[in-house]
Specification:
This protein is an alpha+beta fold and about 160 residues long. It folds into two domains: about 30 residues; about 90 residues, Sandwich (Tumour Suppressor Smad4). Helix content is about 30%, strand content about 25%. Strand 7 and strand 8 form a beta hairpin. The protein is elongated, with a radius of gyration of 21 Å. The N and C termini lie far apart (about 75 Å). Keywords: Phosphoprotein. Pfam families: FHA (PF00498). This is FHA domain-containing protein. It comes from Phytomonospora endophytica.
Amino acid sequence: MPEIVFTVTRFGFLLLLWVFVFAVARTIRQDSYSGSRGGSPVAAPPSVGSAAGGRRGASRARAARHLVVTAGELKGRSVPLGESVITMGRAPDSTLIINDDYASTRHAQLVPRNGQWFIDDLGSTNGTYLDRAKVSGPTPVPLGVPIRIGRTSFELRP
């Protein structure tokens, strides 16, 4: 009897191992395909790469008056921009509350500096993306370039 219990236990652990491997593979596949929709991947937004692009992005970002949700549960919602920081995440005190499984409690923030808006990830689990580039520090946001947190996308608009 103990031999059969030992054998069943071994097969049970083996089965659990394979379930875990398939779950990880499915998650990686979903993450890979969610960022590649809509064309070829772009390494970085145009205003990040060069000094001329940065100046052009700064003059365009000065005209930003609204943060508009373009995809996700809050699609169509617009947040007026002023001189204060816009916080995004699942926390109830966030400026923009995102009820998304892939959003952290305090996920990201938009910060105005010298007439330019910067997106900064606040150490989130799943990351913040500007266009298709992962945000690793304060990054200038040009008008019309999508900011993505999980399934929710935003854009700065005049």
